[in-house]
Amino acid sequence: MVVGFGLINKDFVAVVPTWERDTKVRATHYFEQVGGPVPVALTAVAKLGGLACVHLGVVGDDRDADDLARSLDEQGVSSDFQRTPGVATSRSLVLLDAHDGSRTLANYAEELPLMTFTPAHDELLSQASLLHLDGRDLGGALHAAQLVKAAGGHVSFDLGTMRPGREALFPLCDIILASKGGGAGAFPEHANNPAAQVRSFLAAGVKVAGVTLAEKGVMIATKEQPDPVFLPAFGVPNVLDTCGAGDVFHGAFCWAYATGVLPHAAADFAQATVALRIQNYGNRAGLPDRATVEAFLKKVRP
After folding, report:
1. How deeply is 46 buried, as exposed, middle or buried, from its count of CB atoms within 10 A (0-12, 13-18, 19+)?
2. What is the pTM of this model?
3. Is a pLDDT exceeding 80 seen at residue 297?
């Protein structure tokens, strides 16, 4: 079982032909979807198949929370929300550029309370084979990671942004895949050197470390193979929507790792999953299943 703990929000997405200040523009597409690094990753795990998925998170007691729970359930992810009356569920307004699929995102999250872990939550975490975190609620993330590690499970951390204190998670993590900004924030002395950032994560006790480099690819290394290797991304001709692409990468990597795929091959599998996802609109309709990813890999690397 894969358990995720992190922020969940509702995305309101509009595809626009142009984006300028102080103008009006007609959207060519509009859709709503589950957003947030951890829940989107879990939907990718569920789509690839064979692993039960549960998301733990804090939401408001509102219709958006209902919509998110229903959407996750429809995608094969169970939800265990801590509902908070009087506070709105996190929301994001996303504008997608119709020309290249790039996105501009504005997130609005009220001061949601921290997660209160119950004995039932602790029991769930003790049964997880893998825990995926975003580190937003640092105390909660440390609590969850410690429980999972004590029970013999693995911990994955999506370090999108480095914030004070998050380094405390590093020794508890089997996997850290950081964004360019996350890696630079963790090791500012190596701000422009992803390979050095990867080595520094390994030195902090991480077993599998990587830095994602957007459309370029990923730099990755492991405790057993500590020399960082750059794996180029798969180029695709029709990029429609890059929103959530990094989250999908994490989910596909977690799925591959949890099913016994070696880390470098898992990163390749994850990049193939992303290449297929970004050719479609939305984190739901665009997600490929395992057979589609494997067929793509056979085609590009016969």
Report:
1. buried
2. 0.96
3. yes
